[in-house]
Structures are given as structure tokens and as C-alpha cells.
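Hi support team,

I'm filing this because I wasn't sure whether my run with S-adenosylmethionine finished correctly. The job status page said complete, but I'd like someone to confirm that the output block is well-formed before I use it downstream. Pasting the exact inputs I used:
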Amino acid sequence: MTENYTHQPVMPEEVAQLLVTDKEGIYVDATLGMAGHTLKLLSVLGPKARVIGVDWDPEMAGIAATNLAVYGDRVTIVQGNFANIDEMMKRENITNISGVLFDLGISSLHFDKASRGFSLRNDGPLDMRINPGNPLTAYAILRYWPYEQIEHLIRVCGERNAARIARAIIAKRETKPLETTGELRDLIECLVPYRGEKIHPATKTFLALRVAVNYEFDNLTRGIQKIIPFLSKGGRLGIITFHSLEDRIVKETFKFMAKLGDWKHVTRKPVTPSLAEETSNKRSRSAKLRVIERK
Ligand SMILES: C[S@@+](CC[C@H](N)C(=O)[O-])C[C@H]1O[C@@H](n2cnc3c(N)ncnc32)[C@H](O)[C@@H]1O
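And here is everything the job wrote out:
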């Protein structure tokens, strides 16, 4: 049976409108996913424009290649971590770009496909690696990290019951380590019962594990640092975040860049999805888009 996964890009119109300043420029989609944003960009760009699409997950890069095949050499797909985006640009002989988009986090496929181990609802192995070639998994963190590190990790992601959850994880592993997302969810539900609230009590623990497995904050900081030297005058950097910790990093980084004098805010306040989009695409609800431009 062929599995069929889809991903609806978040705020595609807003992204195209706020990111494209030169219709024949070179654009970078640093988080290509299933290529939803790249397809949108290509639909508004001219025939000489190029898009470089990056994804850390080889599976996503493969899906994107299929979805973008009709564009031929107007699109280059690179599999790798955007934290090393400067090396990718050099390999492609690119010195100047007109815009770059980071649509952070993981795609709907990652959430939906139980075997990738990101899903709270579908039981799967405690994996959570964006790039399955990486050595660290959520299982390894829960099995081998000391209590203090697990508690800290979960607390930093905003979980008020971090200490209780971390203690329960340690107690559990003394008899049998947690192996599946379902076991972790059930363990947390025993401590903090789920009564159908909008946010499941295990959400923040799952987020904390994903962020740690993929060192997402590090990647974000490095990705921004490594790409900005390539942005031409008037070139724009757009970032879509899905939770407050990421958004704070972007907000503070953009504030600092604007203070330096070489950059100006395109969006003073973050752009958020319309009510219609939030209704048709629930995953867009927490999205925030911020854009900055090189003066
Ligand atoms: C929210 S999805 C992007 C969806 C995409 N904009 C679309 O419209 O289909 C984020 C993507 O970024 C990728 N990703 C996450 N961290 C990455 C990193 N450090 N380097 C490169 N890609 C990364 C994930 O594999 C995922 O496919």
C-alpha cells in the first residue's frame, strides 16, 4: 500500500508577498519539506529565478524532488542541515541571494507517520530524528540521561510538571525503559490526566525531546548566522516559528540585527494566519512569520 502524506504550507500568500523583491533572483528555501512554499514562490517568480531547497531529512528531500521535477534546473535540492548552509551555498557557487525562508520544525508527514516517532497520537518508536542518520534518539535521552538533564530539558520547554515527569521517567526505566511514544504519553497522562484540553499534557515533553534530539535552537542560531552574509542589498530573511521559544530567538536576533544598522524590519509585529487558514489548517494556529531586509 502506498502511503499518502500531505503538508499544507503555512501562510503561502504572505510568504510570497513579503519575501519576493526580485522576480529573477535566487531564493533559498532552507526547510524545503514537501516543497509547498517553494512551489508557491516558483508560481510568482520569473523564468530566470532559481530556488535552492534544503532539507535535513533525506525522505523529505526525495518527496520534494518528485514534487518539483517539472521545474528542472530552476530548482536545486540539497540534503543537509541548514546550520551548514554557507557550505551548501559555496558548493553551488552562490554568492548572492534575494531571499531565504526558514519554516521551522517538522512537517505534517513527520507528525503523522508513526514510525518516525514524533507522534503523540500514533504509537511508534521513541525516535524523533529529523535526519535518521543521526545517532541521538528520544529513546537514548530517556534511557541514559541523568534526572537533572531530563528535568531541565522539559522545564525549559515550559512544562510546569517537569520534575514529576522526569522522576516518573527515571522510576520507570529502573524496571523497563520507555520504548514507544504511546508509553511516554500514557506515563504522562497518569501523572497529569488529559481531560480533552486543547493542549495534551504530554505536548511540551514531546516538543522538548524533539528539540534536544535535533539540537533545533543551535541549528536556528547557526542557520541565521550562516545565511545572512549571502543576502544582497534589499534581500529578505523570513522565518516562520511555531512556538514561543523559537519565536523569542528570532525576535531578539532580528532586533539585534536592526540595531546594528544594516537591517530593517519588514514586519514590525509577526504576521499570523488568517482565521480562514487557521480553520482549514489547524497546524497553522501557532505560526508566526517575521521578515527582515538588508538595507
Ligand atoms: C515545517 S516543515 C517545512 C514545510 C515546507 N515549507 C512545505 O511547505 O512543505 C520543516 C522542514 O524542515 C526540515 N528541517 C528541520 N530542521 C532542519 C535543519 N536543521 N536543516 C534542514 N532542514 C530541516 C524538516 O525535515 C521539515 O521537512
